[in-house]
Specification:
transmembrane, MetI-like_sf, mainly alpha, two-stranded antiparallel sheet
Length: about 270
């Protein structure tokens, strides 16, 4: 409730003053170019990351659940990224995509880039957010792969055997048995993925040192809330307004997902 109270006031933390401004903070959202940029970045991030991490996790889980050699070893290897802290992972990726990092060195040795012509991924608005997307997908896929694997353990083998008798190939079994069976888990994965991407803060903050990156290319809604609340803008009331809007969006997504999930059943 205190956040709601703040959203209707202009707050000055230095003088500890609260000036009632009504709906001015909410109306400001419609004209704030920074807010529009942060929203665009966040939605782009969510639209790319959520489907990719879901599809990749589902495919890897299906492969690891099959009768391949060394599947327990690969399960352990794929789960390792989840043991790395977000801050450490961000620093690692910043090094990998730096001008003199391994990615540029590989592109130069492959002849894709000229010698000394490495791309400054971290300072290029066209690449900065995409690097964070790759990093987030790589770090979240193992967690969702584990969830899918746990669900696949309960999938009756008789369903696959019956499909084989009917002449179904691997792709047909995957699309007609595996995917429908995993619908409830997929709904949960999509929900948590959307919420996680909408709340993405730490990676964007570390990646840009809180500045939002070149031309605000890595500025997200959560990072913008932090900047307005605790940065030089001194706009705690406006930050509270943005936080409320973000919370309402997440609540709406959660309610929709819950409704969809309630209509699903295990096969």
């Amino acid at each position: 409730m205190y956040v709601v109270y703040l959203s209707f006031h202009k707050v000055n933390l230095f003088t500890n003053s609260f000036t009632f401004v009504g709906l001015d903070n909410y109306l400001r959202l419609f004209t704030d170019e920074t807010a529009r940029k942060a929203l665009t970045n966040t939605l782009s991030f969510s639209v790319v990351v959520v489907p990719c991490q879901t599809v990749i996790a589902l495919i890897i889980a299906s492969v690891l659940n099959s009768k391949i050699r060394g599947k327990y070893f690969f399960r352990a290897v794929y789960f390792l990224p989840t043991l790395t802290s977000s801050s450490a992972l961000t620093i690692i990726f910043m090094f990998m995509f730096s001008v003199t990092g391994p990615i540029n060195m590989m592109l130069i040795r492959a002849g894709i880039l000229p010698v000394g012509g490495g791309i400054n991924f971290l300072e290029n608005p066209d690449f900065a957010l995409k690097v964070i997307m790759v990093m987030n997908i790589w770090s979240t896929v193992p967690q969702y792969t584990t969830m899918y694997l746990a669900s696949l353990q309960d999938l009756p083998v008789s369903l696959y055997e019956a499909a084989e008798i009917d002449g179904a190939n691997t792709l047909q079994k995957f699309t007609n048995i595996t995917i429908p069976y995993l619908k409830p888990i997929t709904t949960y994965v999509l929900l948590t993925g959307i919420i996680g991407t909408l709340q993405m803060f730490d990676q964007a903050y570390i990646f840009s040192n809180g500045s939002g990156g070149p031309a605000n290319s890595t500025l997200t809604v959560s990072l913008m809330v932090y900047r307005y609340a605790f940065g030089t803008n001194n706009a705690m009331g406006y930050a509270a307004c943005i936080a409320i809007i973000l919370a309402l969006v997440i609540m709406a997504v959660s309610m929709i997902a819950e409704k969809l999930n309630s209509s699903e059943r295990w096969y």
